[in-house]
Amino acid sequence: MPPSNAPLLAAGPEVVAIPGPSVMPARVLNAMHRSMPDIYAGDLTDVIDEVFDALPAIAGTTSRAFVPIGNGHAGWEMALSNTLSRGQLVLVLDCGRFAAIWGEMAEFNGLRVETITAPFGQAIDPAVVEERLAADTGHEIAAVLTVHVDTASSVRNDIPAIRSAIDAAGHPAMFMVDCIASMGCERFEMDAWRVDVTISASQKGLMTPPGLAMVWAGPKALAAHESADLRTRYWDWTYRTEDGPYYLRFCGTPPVSHLFGLREALRMIDEEGLEARYARHVRLADAVRAAVRAWSTEGGLGFTATVAEQRSHAVTSIRTGSIDADALAHRCRDQFGVTLGVGIGGEPGTSFRIGHMGHVNAPMVLGVLGAIESALADLGAPTAGSGVAAASAALAAAGHDG
Amino acid sequence: MPPSNAPLLAAGPEVVAIPGPSVMPARVLNAMHRSMPDIYAGDLTDVIDEVFDALPAIAGTTSRAFVPIGNGHAGWEMALSNTLSRGQLVLVLDCGRFAAIWGEMAEFNGLRVETITAPFGQAIDPAVVEERLAADTGHEIAAVLTVHVDTASSVRNDIPAIRSAIDAAGHPAMFMVDCIASMGCERFEMDAWRVDVTISASQKGLMTPPGLAMVWAGPKALAAHESADLRTRYWDWTYRTEDGPYYLRFCGTPPVSHLFGLREALRMIDEEGLEARYARHVRLADAVRAAVRAWSTEGGLGFTATVAEQRSHAVTSIRTGSIDADALAHRCRDQFGVTLGVGIGGEPGTSFRIGHMGHVNAPMVLGVLGAIESALADLGAPTAGSGVAAASAALAAAGHDG
Amino acid sequence: MPPSNAPLLAAGPEVVAIPGPSVMPARVLNAMHRSMPDIYAGDLTDVIDEVFDALPAIAGTTSRAFVPIGNGHAGWEMALSNTLSRGQLVLVLDCGRFAAIWGEMAEFNGLRVETITAPFGQAIDPAVVEERLAADTGHEIAAVLTVHVDTASSVRNDIPAIRSAIDAAGHPAMFMVDCIASMGCERFEMDAWRVDVTISASQKGLMTPPGLAMVWAGPKALAAHESADLRTRYWDWTYRTEDGPYYLRFCGTPPVSHLFGLREALRMIDEEGLEARYARHVRLADAVRAAVRAWSTEGGLGFTATVAEQRSHAVTSIRTGSIDADALAHRCRDQFGVTLGVGIGGEPGTSFRIGHMGHVNAPMVLGVLGAIESALADLGAPTAGSGVAAASAALAAAGHDG
Amino acid sequence: MPPSNAPLLAAGPEVVAIPGPSVMPARVLNAMHRSMPDIYAGDLTDVIDEVFDALPAIAGTTSRAFVPIGNGHAGWEMALSNTLSRGQLVLVLDCGRFAAIWGEMAEFNGLRVETITAPFGQAIDPAVVEERLAADTGHEIAAVLTVHVDTASSVRNDIPAIRSAIDAAGHPAMFMVDCIASMGCERFEMDAWRVDVTISASQKGLMTPPGLAMVWAGPKALAAHESADLRTRYWDWTYRTEDGPYYLRFCGTPPVSHLFGLREALRMIDEEGLEARYARHVRLADAVRAAVRAWSTEGGLGFTATVAEQRSHAVTSIRTGSIDADALAHRCRDQFGVTLGVGIGGEPGTSFRIGHMGHVNAPMVLGVLGAIESALADLGAPTAGSGVAAASAALAAAGHDG
């Protein structure tokens, strides 16, 4: 009786392995579980200071961050509205799905948009960017917009290489990078890579429930801000000055709970260390990739991101070939208590995603892979070998060489 | 030794009696304290349905609400950007502070703004509104903006009377009302009073930590939306359709924790009943006002809101005359563990505010009043009699006549 | 309509002013809200060390405490079983209710019991103790058992005076004192006062939910332990050695959540300081007593504890004379959201109790007193004046003289 | 650099896979996170009623349970003291470690004790029990004490078979069974199996933090209670009557937080259903056993419980042969964030234990097994094959046949 059987193995703590919102640490949830403080003085202002002081380092910059209450799309809109003017042209570099949506927002908000789209499953080719910018001899393009990691395709762009392409073209466009899926998980160096605007949000590698975005603004962006005519009050950087009362930084009442939570998350990041954090994400991603390779068959499972070095360390999209990805996801959830991320892009039912970002470790990754393997077997899906065994082996090796 | 004495009586649960963020119920905080669910299906979508279904009733309307992640200012910007176009004229009715700030936002965002300002401490005079609108024979004024309750002055406008004034002038302007300080506390009937756009936020009478705004849009507003050119993607009502996937209602990742919290708060409101809730706020406000009257002396304490029937049932601003309001607030906080709201408007140090909104009851109000009375005595401030005794007496009477 | 009226003012945070379990600090509840750790090593063992190291000081002793999982009665049984043998005689000094119950336990467990009962509302007279012990020339009495504060009558015994009485009689009996209602609230000096066994529990002044008892054992008690034949394994002090593995201190699995909670509570006590804590309890008790005096009428409200200097600073029992105490308590709870402690001892419906122990401060006490005053007025009960006004005045004075 | 490498993969939620305290559901922790209620009326008394009404069914009985605040040892002492008298003889059946400790308690508390010890790794042989009881023609043996599952050896006794042995011997001894490690995980039918006293505790299959024990007393035990002379007040069943006030059931202040938590846990058990729960534990245990078998080598890993049908479905003890079990446990914890249970019994460092009891599911078990496999590889330990692959395969099969 499959129906009555279904829930048996799913009791116990639900495991949600989607690429964000990710697993929230108990420390963060406990920090958010508190009564409301005074919002003009005392504890909350200390928290705000600590959060704003800590944010630059995690983006590899000395530039301050703005922190709108909102999600990642709020970060996108804050970035656009503070730096651009109606009718300006932006060049969107899309390697999956999210840069394109950002571009749609830019167009809706009054900008002209031109998009370079990488073949699905591949990162942006910097040479194509250089070629397009070199052709823009009038410097009509005001900004280049892209993502560090595309959450849909799980492809990671080579940001330094794109920066070099812009430079090689001698083009003055601002360079804006969405790091929503990668911040705190994958190395990102805003200053060293000369990114002008960096965008992130709380709910993935930063381990805080959705509801906060972050926008780091470099000097070129702040200069553009002076004359940008898309500016509106809610997003406006000048209004959100750090010189005035604390609530102005949030254009009104501060997001109390989230600030206490984010403060705790930033402390956890500091305690672990960014380098250790990046290394952890690489190793866990390697384990996931070892599993996918072990399962992989002709016409069966494989990577959405076709080029190995372009695969994100925070999320992995897996194409399922002849296997029904939706059936697999349902089996994982109903039988084994594991919720996978739905595939985005491509035909429906042909891929799924695993988030391995933020507050994640070896038993979580292995448990998810093990449950997928059980579900694959349960469905009679073809696999070349045991993915979870390969992942365990990969993690063992990781233990040796530091 | 006053310094060492100071903290003695302040141990125990801190009481923050500011006019928002208010006291959060344990039920709400517990509901927010949870792991992240799938955001495409399951529990979260049930919560979203329940929240959206419950929101119309609390505003006295059948119109649906939009729920931007953000604070009250986000609600303001959503309302303006979805219904108005660059260069249009709006008439702001200010009776304290917050309508004026909303007007500043409107101007910054490209609207022309004209403001009618009530004498400080008084509500808007509907006759003045009627006169101005009647003079606008060309119907240049696209919208009338005001607040239901001004959180600074604690004055409540007579919204039905202003509506009648607009009607009497035969003016087609949209009528937009900010109910951030009053929603869930004071009677508000969007449909019966023919308000076109109502704005609120989570952190006051709705008993949910700051981070969510609500904008209820009536038919006239939705019609105006069609041609409004201030629209941007993050705020856009059309994009936030209920017909598509749930995340579109939030223009991206939903605010998971807040939605679980707001759902619980809305259930609590439903369990208590809106009428009982309004009656409770009246009685507790009456107790506060009985205290202020008992304390009141020539040149000493008194009401900021000079007209009795204009005093809000959710917040009370108290002018302190010759008494240093800042010294009083510090004494309350440091000696007695009670944080008062700072006065806004008027000379610095000449007023303070007490929030009595949302999750509040007799012992809370009496405890705050008692601590203020102790602090007043401690400062040697003149008072005509015992405010807390008068408040206790007022609440006793409230018990009798139902 | 009183029924529909009833709940109106009771919405908001329920205030439970019973004499224990008392108000739990958010810090303590949050510390308890955690996953289970390893019980053999790591965090938990650090917590156990910190708790055991901190417990002696709060009892004014250098003797170690034993910490049985259990309530106050568990503490009683641990004390008796570890130090006494079947058929031995104990002298119980009862000034309310709880010493007598302890005596019933002693008798049930195989001891002979003789009880000195103070007139209700009065503390034990040390002269009577001295007289009885002097008459016990054969030193048949093995132990003297009493309470520091009786939670029922709210009478505080003069422990040093009783100690002096024992000494004056030249009697070698062990002196065992139940400090369940007073520990952390009222000064207690186990070593200076030469108490041999002190008993307390977590849920009152120690601000941790019920479930832990503490028994501090002095040298005389540890010596008596060697030959006591009431010993059983669960309570046995020798088995609960600190020399072995940590779980032995709890005779099995440690009470994980409570230990994390108690650790946090002990840190809060340390941060406030014991002297400041005692002073706070005196002042808040003074405020309660000022209210009772102000309400007091011939035949109406008054103190159960008839002698002023014998009144506890942690709990106050109030006799209600002609007023129906049960009706008053129901009115407080149903109308105003304040739960009072039921009266214990005397005729039913003739007294009630207010707990003012542990995590308590001025607004809490004033809120409870104000609600009682409202309820008294609501019932038409006779009162001489405003108790809550008197309490506010008393707290103001407390602010001056440090 | 192993040291700096160590913590990398251990970030993320700590997984504690010890055989109790087990993983606590968020629902239970949230239910415990609350302010203290009145203890004489209202919510708490509803909770107590619900808990006491629900407890019989989970033990397969109509007999009521007593619920001492305490751990499992408290349950043992309550059972002994309420039913036996000094000098009586009890027969202890030990198949690991815990029945023997219970026997030590019995002896300490004044009983005579005779122990039948199974060969380590094996269950009690019912024939041996029958033989001994048949030889006790004078019926000197008052009670037979054993465990359902021994948490140390992970051996499960055949309780119906032992019952049959007692019957076959025609012996009237009471039959007392410790179900601390099995209750809520493995089928147990107190009434059908004619067990007279059943003992459990909150922290394993009942998913509530340590601090509560349960003792179900059948008719024969209640009859023996009448004349038992080991009775003491704290444990006494008569005093803990359900006819009086609620606090008497706990011999004093009730364990408020734990009762709210246990109520929620019992609701979760009811929602899942006992049969589904037993089936889940069998399947997850089968997965663990599939892994052990796959790893198993001559001289390497293997089962402590040597007979397949005697292996518990709640805990598995694994002997490590030539592999250093302590090194393995440290590697699991430090490298991979998984805490294993230390081995109990046998030479130090030669075994470890995995708890798979209560709030546990497929990804948790697979994650723990995967981490162990990684650690084994990391240590260069010999294994015959991939245990985690075998476990995934076992769970897949479980999905098919319901």
Folded structure, characterized:
The structure is a homotetramer. The first copy, chain A, has helices spanning about 1-5, 25-30, 45-60, 70-85, 100-110, 125-135, 160-170, 220-225, 255-270, 275-295, 325-335, 360-380, 385-400; strands at about 15, 65, 90-95, 110-115, 140-145, 175-180, 195-200, 215, 300-305, 315-320, 340, 350-355. In chain A, the strands form two sheets. A seven-stranded mixed beta sheet of chain A has the order 2-8-7-6-5-3-4, with helices on both faces. A five-stranded mixed beta sheet of chain A has the order 1-11-12-10-9. Mean pLDDT of chain A is about 95; it is low at about 1-5. Helices cover about 40% and strands about 15% of the residues of chain A. With about 400 residues, chain A is an alpha/beta fold. The first copy, chain A, is globular, with a radius of gyration of 22 Å. Chains in contact: A-B, A-C, A-D, B-C, B-D, C-D. At the A-D interface, helix 1, helix 10, helix 11, helix 12 and helix 13 of A face helix 1, helix 10, helix 11, helix 12 and helix 13 of D.
Biggest interface, chains and residue tallies = A-D, 61 and 61 residues
The coarse silhouette of chain A is globular
Please mark out the parts of chain A with pLDDT under 50 across 5 or more consecutive residues, or reply none.
1-7
Oligomer: homotetramer
State the major sheet of chain A: 7 strands, mixed
Structural class estimated from helices and strands of chain A = alpha/beta
Average of pLDDT of chain A: 95
Discrete helix count of chain A? 13
Find the count of extended strands of chain A (DSSP E, 2+ residues).
12
Beta content of chain A comes to: 5-15%
* Widest sheet, order of strands of chain A: 2-8-7-6-5-3-4
Radius of gyration of chain A: 22 Å
What is the percent of helical residues of chain A? Answer: 25-40%
The ordered string of helix (H) and strand (E) elements of chain A is HEHHEHEHEHEHEEEHHHEEHEEHH
Distance between the termini of chain A: 48 Å
